[in-house]
Amino acid sequence: MESIDLHIKRELLEYLVLIRRFEERVKVLYHQGAIMGAIHLYIGQEAVAVGVCRSLRDEDTVFSTHRGHGHAIAKSGEVERIMAELMGRDEGLSRGHGGSMHLFEPPKGLMGGNGIVGGGIPLSLGGAFTAQYQGSDRISVGFFSDGAVNQGTFAECLNLAALWKLPVLLVCENNQYAATTPVERSTAVRDVVGRARAFGVRAEKVDGNDVEAVFQAATAAVAALRQSQGPRLLECETYRVEPHCGIIPDERTPGERELWNPRDPVSLFVGRLVGEGAISASDLEALERRVRERLDRAVEFGARSPWPDPQVDPHRTWVLQ
Amino acid sequence: MRKIWYKTAINEAMHEEMARDERVFLIGEDVDLFGGVFKISRGLVERFGARRVRGTPISESAFVGLAAGAAMTGLRPIVEMMYIDFALVAMDQLINQAASTSYMSGGRVRLPLVVRGQYGTGTSEAAQHSRNFESWFINTPGYKVVMPSTAYDAKGLLKSAIRDENPVLYLENRVLYTHKEEVPEGEWLVPLGSAEVKRAGADITVVATGYAVHKALSAAEQLAGRVDVEVLDPRTLDPLDLPAVLSSVRKTANLLVVQEAPVQCSFASEVVRLVVQEAFRDLEHPPLALGAADVPVPFSPALERAVIPQVEDIVAAVQRVLEKGA
To answer: What ipTM, to 2 d.p.?
Structure first.
């Protein structure tokens, strides 16, 4: 595997830290009541979104999930308008119509999250279909989790993607939990890679907490997809640190979370970069300060943004001709 | 004027719109083989190729969702449901995804998608091949619902549906597929949301949909001389051309709504509600909604006929409204 350029490593780190601190900030704002609704935090899984999305071009499409803040930030580079959307404001990415699970930024290829587990997989094939139909080398990415592999859409889409050689990268974030049910209680055969291969989809398993490993695997898969070599699946083994969502209690075995601490994707990568001499303690301090200031601005932007005006909002959902 | 089948009209509309716009493609089960099981897509794969006419595996969720995703990213899909009943398998993709995405994005994504499907009763296919879904989709924000009863409307409405920027459910009646009617040559459209009076009359307005339009016209013939029946076909059920309905009711002062679907919480009951709300004082008698019995459609012709409104039921319903009201 080719080594990753230093400037790319720094970019990966910047996004990892940005998403981690963003989610920490969201957690506080949620408990203060400034952010409402169903909030699914991405803490612990940041390396997947960053490794995959930073291997893409703007025009490549990403179809995300209910746990999609990380994908949205990594794909769009937005923070301010994502924060405003989470706060239900008019200047939010989706003008306050979608919220946490429905973040759209089409010019950057961000095609929304999804409130239905497995619901976005067929849509991601649609993005790939359009690229193939238009003869473009764009690719499409569908994120989902171990919970979604037991939905019918997963099996249907593996077959259809393989049958039509669609340029789609299916990314399974195996975070060990389907809502609150652990994977061993929901899935008879846990080998997602094996399932994909059974349908004729080339698949590979990668350490989802190692951002470099994810980035390298995604980069190789994307290159193959651009050459019309058929769909790919990446199973990224990771761990959901937070409860399923803000309103659902979590009764995990005591000590389980702590077992994953040494695999924390942010500290893992920081430690490696410091060890390589690629960043210094003061670089890290500057990065944290940059991120903190950006998030301060984002929270301020969200809080200042007006609420959507129900008088202006169309009463019907139809788009005018 | 030339006469063509209702199903030929649908086929012509797809030929013309696919020739007009490269972004339009057809996807569904068997659509590339022999023109589909009902031959609605005849000639399309030969003319436009396998790239634009995509036969699919029997995976409704996958291909409906794929079409929705293609619409989100710049194409204009036509999805064919072999039987509209099969839409139930893809309901998440049709409703949670296709119908909601444009709105949830704050209008940042458009979703120009036509879902065509044939429906109908009277062919002894039992409950899972005989459903009427128009009311489900009317009740779902995000869909326009189109239900042509003539070949002329079938062609003009489908062309408008394909050019619309929103998800459109386009319902084809399989009993009407082989009805032959006058359809002009050349380019014309029937706008979505426009009703048409199929027969003018002075005594009662019968609002009817799909095959019930033809049954209502036969009932009107039988009643001619005694009762002067006006038959109004809304053609698009959502958005409803309410001004046309109200103007007819204000003229006749009486209303019967006829559909082949069950009545509870349906299009027919909704039209009655709207007329009562908007034109109560113009009504002479209480209005009536007539539809199928509240059972899954049975198989045997003897049973099937009994649960679906027939011409004689419409005649009786007209008399009931005019004599004593509902």
So the answer is: 0.96
Q: What is the pLDDT of residues B170-213, one digit of tens each?
A: 999 999 999 999 999 999 999 999 999 999 999 999 999 999 99
Best mutation target among B21, B26, B60, B66 (most A Cβ atoms within 10 Å) is B66
Query: Looking at beta carbons, which residues of chain A come within 8 Å of B105?
Result: 94, 97-98, 102, 104, 106, 112
Give the residue ranges of DSSP H helices in A174-260: 183-186, 192-198, 211-226, 256-260
Give the burial class of B301: count Cβ atoms within 10 A of its Cβ; 0-12 exposed, 13-18 middle, 19 or more buried.
Answer: exposed
Q: Do A123 and B65 touch (CB under 8 A)?
A: yes
Sheet holding B144-146, edge to edge: B53-55, B24-28, B76-81, B114-119, B168-173, B144-146, B236-238
What total number of domains does chain A contain?
1
Return the CATH number at A187. 3.40.50.970
Give the residue numbers spanning the domain of A284. Answer: 6-304
Side chain identity at A269, as an amino acid letter?
F
Mean pLDDT by 10 residues, chain B (326 residues): 97 98 97 90 97 98 98 98 96 97 93 97 92 94 96 98 97 97 95 98 98 98 97 97 98 98 97 98 97 96 96 98 76
B97-128 in b/e form (b: 16+ CB < 10 A) is bbbbbbbbbbbbbbbbbbbbbbbbbbebbeee
Residue B22 annotated to the active site: no
**Predicted local confidence at residue B299, as pLDDT:** 96
Q: Is A93 on the interface with B (CB under 8 A)?
A: yes
Q: Which residues of A touch B57 (CB under 8 A)?
A: 156, 159-160, 163
Helix (H, G, I), strand (E, B) or coil at A168: strand
- Mean pLDDT per 10-residue interval, chain A, length 321 residues: 88 98 96 93 97 98 98 98 97 94 98 97 98 98 95 98 98 91 88 97 98 98 96 96 82 88 96 96 97 98 93 59 42
Domain presence at residue A313: no
Contacts of B69 in chain A (CB under 8 A): 63, 111, 122-127, 129-130, 140
Alpha-carbon Rg of chain A, whole angstroms? 19
B24 has a chain A CB within 8 A of its CB: no
Neighbouring CB atoms inside 10 A of A270's CB total: 17
Residue in this structure with the two tokens 């009359």, named with its chain if needed: B201
Query: What's the rounded Cα separation, in Å, for the pair B6 and B12?
Result: 10
- H/E stretch holding A28 reads helix A6-32
**One of B129, B134, B172, B304 is an active-site residue; which one?**
B129
Q: Name the nearest CA neighbour of A238 among A47, A41, A40, A9.
A: A47
Q: Of the candidates B59, B69, B110, which has its C-beta nearest A127's C-beta?
A: B69
Non-local (6+) Cβ contacts of B130 within 8 A are B85, B119, B120, B121, B123, B297, B304
Give the separation between CA A188 and CA A177, rounded to whole angstroms.
14
Domains of chain B: 3-182 (3.40.50.970), 196-323 (3.40.50.920)
How far A254 CA lies from chain B's nearest CA (Å)? 37
* Distance between B143 CA and the closest CA of chain A, angstroms: 8
